[in-house]
Amino acid sequence: MDVITFRYLISLVVSEKLNMQLMDVVTAYLYGDLDTEIYMKVPDGLSLPKSSGSRPRSAFAIRLKRSLYGLKQSGRMWYTRLSDYLIGRGYVNNELCPCVFIKTTSSGFAIVAVYVDDMNIIGTLDELRDTAECLKSEFEMKDLGKTRFCLGLELEHRDSGILIHQSAYTQKMLRRFNMDKVHPVSTPMIGRSLDLKKDPFRPRDDDEDVLEAEVPYLSAIGALLYLAQCTRPDISFAVNLLARHSSAPTQRHWTGIKTIFRYLKGTIDMGLFYPYRESRKYGKMGEEPMPFVDTAEYGGRPVDTGPSTGRRRTEPIVLTFGVRFPSVRTDHRKYFYYSLLPKP
User: Fold this and answer.
1) CB contact set of 24 (below 8 Å; sequence gap of 6+)
2) CA atoms within a 13 Å half-sphere pointing along the CA-CB vector of 210
3) Is the dihedral of CA 69, 74, 78, 79 positive or negative?
4) Are 245 and 204 in contact, with CB atoms under 8 Å apart?
5) Which tens digit of pLDDT belongs to each residue from 3-21?
6) Where is the Reverse transcriptase Ty1/copia-type domain (predicted)?
7) 292 contact partners, CB below 8 Å, separation of at least 6
């Protein structure tokens, strides 16, 4: 299960007012049955058969029947074991996300989202309880209650909705890059210029030096990309803009990275909030479209378009809530419409 799937399941929980529970499988990899012959040395503490005679212990080997932690195929064997069991109990494996299993009944449904040995169970109350008992009857499980941490995301269950954030990850990242004591700023980007030659985010000039290897530019880009893709879309544009210069970063670009860190310093607790249906302005999905149009692209990218040197190119995006639209082309600009949720 990836972060996108997990966030979609959270939106399903709040939109349909479902229950959400996290369970952990104890020593999950030990449940997998091996499909190949694997032998290992006789471990200490295991007695040799009497027929072994006086031959040394190193002359013997044992064959594994179950997977162990450390084997390359342990993860696959555990997934196969779990998948066969759930499918045998009436769950359907999702084709698009193999780690999601769904079972529907006349009174409701249950969704099991698997991430290694963590299982998020989502659904109506009775089906959720039945699923939990079904798993406990086959595997040794720990009931961790409501999901509060998964895939590096922290969940806060509130009366009005669910907030997901990465405060702990952000603090750890700031300490890693020695930016945990800086003064915060209010925006993730510094000012830009319409003049390509004055734009601080332009590519490296011929007279500029590339950053030395000791400067962790690529590491910072990777850490920020993960944060932007999970819970901080407000830094997505700035991070992706700076990621374009990963092959030849300069001090200007490193200053841009530090600006993002300073912005995060002052917004550590920010995240994505999923309000319950009664907390939203419109109570029913698809009842009233709530479009969001972004044609600014935070100033776009300075490009040379012939006579109008330095003109900015933008890619407009329109987001709607619960309503599908086809893609439409008008003049020279193509608009893409994305629906945040499937049409009811």
Assistant:
1) 117, 118, 119, 141, 142, 144
2) 6
3) positive
4) yes
5) 888 998 999 999 888 999 9
6) 6-190
7) 318, 319, 320
- The model's pTM: 0.73
* CATH 3.30.310 residue ranges for the chain: 3-32+71-151
Supply the pLDDT for residue 320.
52
pLDDT digits (tens, 9 = 90+) for 210-250: 888 889 999 999 999 999 999 999 999 999 999 999 888 99
**Mean pLDDT of the 133-161 span:** 91
Task: Report the CATH number of the 3-32+71-151 domain.
Answer: 3.30.310
Spatial strand order of the sheet with 271-275 comes to: 149-150, 153-157, 161-165, 271-275
In this structure, the dihedral spanned by the alpha carbons of residues 225, 228, 231 and 233, taken in order and rounded to 10 degrees, is -160
Q: What percent of the chain has pLDDT over 70?
A: 80
**Mean of all residue pLDDT scores within the chain:** 81
- Please give the residue that has the higher pLDDT: either 247 or 300: 247
